[in-house]
């Protein structure tokens, strides 16, 4: 009897031990699966985060270049105002180049003088944008004379839904070795709306290569060199014109040639190429990695 009891107790001990080991083994396997699941989930979250970050960075990159493209084309926003006072004809004769509804007030036939350009509550310009507010121009002398100064400032001025605060200083540097008049152009501009705040400071030299002898804007052509710094929200970009930008105002509303080097805050360099002389709304942006993107100059952005 004692032998049978001992045998039974022994069986119960080993059976219980086996159940314990099996249970422990299952717990280990379950824990291992849980760890594997957690690792897989963590890796998935990490990959999604990296992908989202890369996408965000890529979108930020594109937006940064859009900022540059937009500011390069902002030059034409004030082309008429920029040329007034630099022609042999009077400012009243120059009114023909403004859209209907703009009031031009010239304080004097002599220099120095002030010219007020009033867009009122809104006038659609030749590019389809609605301008409102005033532009004030102060001119020391005929802008074809060496040393003549002109300042352009805005007051309660808007283009479409964007407020524009700008100050521009133009000085006649005289004629260069090619016999063309050169202007020093410096200034700053701030554009704000509900979504953006963009500021730009710039310094340029503008060479008048054709049309300086007439009042007709259709024969005016310029070569432009210079640099700028653009800040949009938390982005900072610097630009330098490495091949002169060619503007043929009467023949094309876009730059017809020229290259702009774009340097981002992280040191990456890209180049915006306006082409080699054709008038179209196309340009190319070569990124730091060699990728080439097409640019829509009409929309002022990279093609998506």
Write the layout of secondary structure elements.
Blueprint: H1 2-73, H2 79-83, H3 91-94, E1 103-106, E2 113-118, E3 123-124, E4 130-139, E5 149-159, E6 162-175, E7 181-192, E8 197-210, E9 221-232, E10 235-248, E11 257-264, E12 269-276, E13 282-286, E14 292-296, E15 301-302
Antiparallel strand pairs: 1-2, 2-4, 3-4, 4-5, 5-6, 6-7, 7-8, 8-9, 9-10, 10-11, 11-12, 12-13, 13-14, 14-15
What is shown here, in short?
Helices cover 27% and strands 42% of the residues.
Can you put this structure into words, describing what you see?
- With 304 residues, the chain is α+β, with helices and mostly antiparallel strands.
- It has one domain (63-302).
- Helix content is 27%, strand content 42%.
- It is globular.
Poorly predicted segments = 2-8, 37-60
Order of helices and strands: HHHEEEEEEEEEEEEEEE
Distance between the termini: 91 Å
Question: What structural class results from the helix and strand content?
Answer: alpha+beta
Taken as a percent bin, the fraction of beta residues is 35-45%
Binned, the helix content reads 25-40%
Number of helices: 3
Shape: globular
How many domains comprise the coordinates?
Answer: 1
- Main beta sheet strand tally, sense and closure: 15 strands, antiparallel
Report the average pLDDT across residues: 78
The tally of strands reads: 15
Radius of gyration: 33 Å
Essential attributes:
globular; 27% helix; 15 strands; 304 residues; 15-stranded antiparallel β-sheet; alpha+beta; 3 helices
């Amino acid at each position: 009897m004692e032998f049978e009891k001992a045998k039974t107790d022994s069986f119960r001990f080993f059976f219980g031990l086996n159940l314990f080991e099996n249970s422990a083994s299952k717990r280990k396997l379950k824990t291992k699966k849980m760890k594997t699941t957690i690792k897989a989930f963590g890796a998935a979250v990490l990959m999604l985060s990296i992908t989202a970050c890369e996408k965000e960075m890529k979108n930020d990159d594109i937006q940064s270049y859009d900022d540059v493209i937009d500011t390069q084309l902002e030059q034409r926003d004030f082309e008429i105002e920029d040329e007034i006072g630099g022609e042999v004809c009077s400012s009243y004769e120059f009114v023909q180049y403004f859209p209907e509804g703009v009031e031009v007030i010239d304080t004097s036939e002599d220099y120095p003088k002030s010219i007020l350009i009033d867009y009122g509550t809104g006038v659609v310009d030749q590019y389809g944008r609605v301008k409102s507010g005033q532009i004030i121009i102060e001119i020391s002398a005929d802008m074809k004379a060496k040393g003549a100064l002109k300042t352009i400032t805005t007051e309660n001025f808007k283009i479409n839904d964007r407020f524009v605060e700008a100050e521009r200083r133009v000085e006649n540097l005289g004629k260069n070795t090619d016999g063309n008049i050169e202007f020093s152009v410096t200034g700053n501009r701030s554009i704000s709306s509900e979504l953006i705040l963009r500021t730009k400071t710039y310094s340029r030299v503008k060479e008048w290569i054709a049309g300086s002898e007439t009042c007709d804007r259709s024969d005016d052509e310029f070569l432009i060199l210079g640099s700028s710094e653009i800040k949009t929200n938390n982005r900072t970009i610097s630009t330098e014109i490495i091949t002169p930008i060619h503007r043929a105002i009467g023949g094309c509303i876009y730059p017809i040639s020229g290259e702009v080097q774009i340097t981002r805050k992280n040191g990456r360099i890209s180049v915006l190429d306006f082409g080699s002389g054709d008038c179209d709304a196309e340009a190319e942006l070569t990124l730091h990695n060699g990728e080439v993107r097409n640019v829509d100059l009409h929309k002022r952005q990279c093609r998506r």
